[in-house]
Amino acid sequence: MATTETEPEFDLLVAGGGINGAGIARDAAGRGLKVCLIEQHDLAAHTSSASTKLIHGGLRYLEQGELRLVRESLAERERLLAIAPHIIRPLRFVLPYVDGLRPRWLLRLGLFIYDHAGGRERLQASSATPLTGTALGEALQPALRDGFEYSDCWVEDSRLVVLNAMDAAARGASIHTRTRLLAAEEAAGNWKLSLRDTGSGRSWTATARVLVNATGAWVNDVLQSLAIAPTQRLRLVKGSHLILRRIHGGEKACLLQSPDKRVIFMIPFEQDYTLVGTTDVPFADDPARPVISAAEQDYLLDCLNRFLRVPVTRADVIASYSGVRPLFDDGSAAAAQQVSRDYHLELQHGSSGAPALSVYGGKITTYRRLAEHALEKLAPVLALSTDDSWTAGEPLPGGDLPDGDLPRFTAHCRERWPLLPPQLMERLARTYGTRTGQLLGGARRLADLGQEYGAGLTEAEVRYLVQHEWARSAEDILLRRTRLGLRFPASAVHGLQDAVTQLLG
């Protein structure tokens, strides 16, 4: 029979374990607030693990006149690269010139602004580039002879969420995954919240001075459950991606222009694959279960085939994934692709004055600034100083690499553990950074890491993920804590799930 317990009062209860909720929890905990983060599923279970996995300014947002958003995003690109160099890395993008689409002068102007709008320091500037005779050019149509290059960053998106939650916990926050908000009522200007752990069946109550509603696609549903009428509109837009067998050589990504004025990314992915995305289509179904449609798949393949020398078909698709973007809708955009990726914070109060802050929109690149703005908005309520921001220069767990140099750190790991497979050491270094030693413990040989479940995943890594990163299922590990799901044998998933269950007791 489920038990009901009462928890002490929190300053802040954050509902939603995506990137915005985790970022707000981290920032608040670092300011000395008593914080609780709840997530009804796994951390990054939805939108935050279904991105194009880029930390970028958004080159196409310049075309929409969103200079403020681009400037903030570019500045954040530099900061995030500095605090998480193990899971964020520079990536060069090639933009082939296509006669009849955007003129050369417009591309040059856009890239010039992109280079100079955000205080670029670490990344290489844009430049003109030939395609003929290059690894990328060999995969493209012969008529595509040249174009432009520019820099952005790749990110392990779901790990970025987990690392923010880990840092929040290290600073005193209470993190509860698979925990549902059942009911909320006001009590003396605070929120009294009824919660349930859906895994154990444990029910408990908590009180919080402020409720932060960072539930993404469910933001207005949660507000209504608080008996607060939403004043802002949400626009749900589905973005889908394809994972194909590797299309082109080299390590550069490609930005492909489409005649409908959209752009599609073609990105080297996990050594053997190519990631292609994304779409922008209106969405009205269950946001917990978005699936790519046949029309979206055809759209992405058709766009690719306008550029590729050797066409791809559905047979080349290894996997796909979709996410629902909960965009702030100010009513100014007609098409889904034109809706702003900027964010909006709405502070409202219940009938007895209990405050609730709701998060609308945003993109993974600007999550840290969104969190700062959220705490600024709550400063009068929580008696905070607006000068207490701290997250811009503090590394995320594992991100304190010497000089932020991942290749050098990886080489150091290979020297420190010479008897472990080099490929394994490279994956661990770029996944866990300086936490690699904590994961490996006293291991020196592969046998010391315990059972190997498949694709290089060992008992020691599984134990670390369960004990330190809230992994509760094989899916959590294969799809969100690592990228091993693409290679992991289907026949071994059941055994991995059994191992996780045993570790959970």
Give an overview of the whole structure.
With 505 residues, the chain is α+β, with helices and mostly antiparallel strands. Among the domains are: 87-154 and 235-327, 2-Layer Sandwich (D-Amino Acid Oxidase, Chain A, domain 2); 402-504, Alpha-glycerophosphate oxidase, cap domain (Helicase, Ruva Protein, domain 3). It has helices spanning 19-30, 59-63, 67-83, 104-116, 157-170, 219-225, 294-305, 367-382, 406-416, 422-432, 436-440, 459-468, 474-481, 493-504, and strands at residues 4-15, 35-38, 54-55, 88-96, 127-130, 146-155, 174-176, 179-187, 190-197, 203-213, 233-245, 253-257, 263-269, 273-277, 281-282, 317-329, 343-349, 355-361, 452-454, 457-458. Strands 3, 4, 5, 6, 11, 12, 13, 14, 15 and 16 form a 10-stranded mixed beta sheet that branches. Strands 1, 2, 7, 8, 9, 10, 17 and 18 form an 8-stranded mixed beta sheet that branches. Strand 8 and strand 9 form a beta hairpin. Helix 1 packs parallel to helix 5 (157-170). It is globular, with a radius of gyration of 23 Å. It starts with a strand and ends with a helix.
Please tag this protein with its features.
ten-stranded mixed beta sheet, Helicase, Ruva Protein, domain 3, eight-stranded mixed beta sheet, alpha+beta, 505 residues, D-Amino Acid Oxidase, Chain A, domain 2, 27% strand, 14 helices
Oligomer: single chain
Mean pLDDT: 94
Second-tier CATH architecture of the domain at 87-154 and 235-327 = 2-Layer Sandwich
Q: Estimate the helix proportion, in percent.
A: 25-40%
Rg from alpha-carbon coordinates: 23 Å
- Per the CATH scheme, the topology name of the domain at 87-154 and 235-327 is D-Amino Acid Oxidase, Chain A, domain 2
**Superfamily (CATH H level) name of the domain at 87-154 and 235-327:** D-Amino Acid Oxidase, subunit A, domain 2
The rounded distance between the terminal residues' Cα atoms is: 18 Å
Form type: globular
SS elements, strand count = 20
- Please tally the helical runs, counting DSSP H or I stretches of 4 or more residues: 14
Low-confidence stretches: none
Largest sheet: 10 strands, mixed
Percentage of residues in strands: 25-35%
SSE class: alpha+beta
Briefly, what CATH class of the domain at 87-154 and 235-327?
Answer: Alpha Beta
